[in-house]
Specification:
The structure is a single chain. 27% of the residues lie in helices and 36% in strands. It has 90 residues and is an alpha+beta fold. It is built from three helices and five strands. It has a five-stranded mixed sheet. It has one domain: Beta-grasp domain (Ubiquitin-like (UB roll)), CATH 3.10.20. The longest helix has 11 residues.
């Protein structure tokens, strides 16, 4: 059953990105769903709230898109499926 779910995610070209509030553990129960062709940090911010993208300073990313965990990234960083993101505002 798990393999079927993974195959569905691949076919739909969607990725799951998890949020991590500062000083807390990641929320792995409620991912932000992004399209594979719109999966930058900026797209992630806009999906949550328009003002978050405007107030964005940088983000910490854990997961396969990061060169090391965590990695400090900008708005143009492309996210991978099941990455964890912590946004730092100005």
């Amino acid at each position: 059953m798990q393999e079927l779910l993974e195959e569905i995610w691949k076919e739909l070209k969607m990725i799951r990105v998890y949020t991590k509030p500062k000083g807390q553990i990641p929320d792995l129960d409620d991912p932000v769903i992004l399209s594979k062709d719109k999966c930058t940090i900026e797209d992630f911010c806009l999906k949550i709230h328009k003002r978050l993208a405007e107030e964005f300073n940088y983000a910490w990313v854990w997961g396969t898109s990061a060169k090391f965990n965590p990695q400090k990234v900008g708005k143009n960083h492309k996210l991978d499926d099941e990455d964890v993101v912590q946004i730092v505002k100005k």
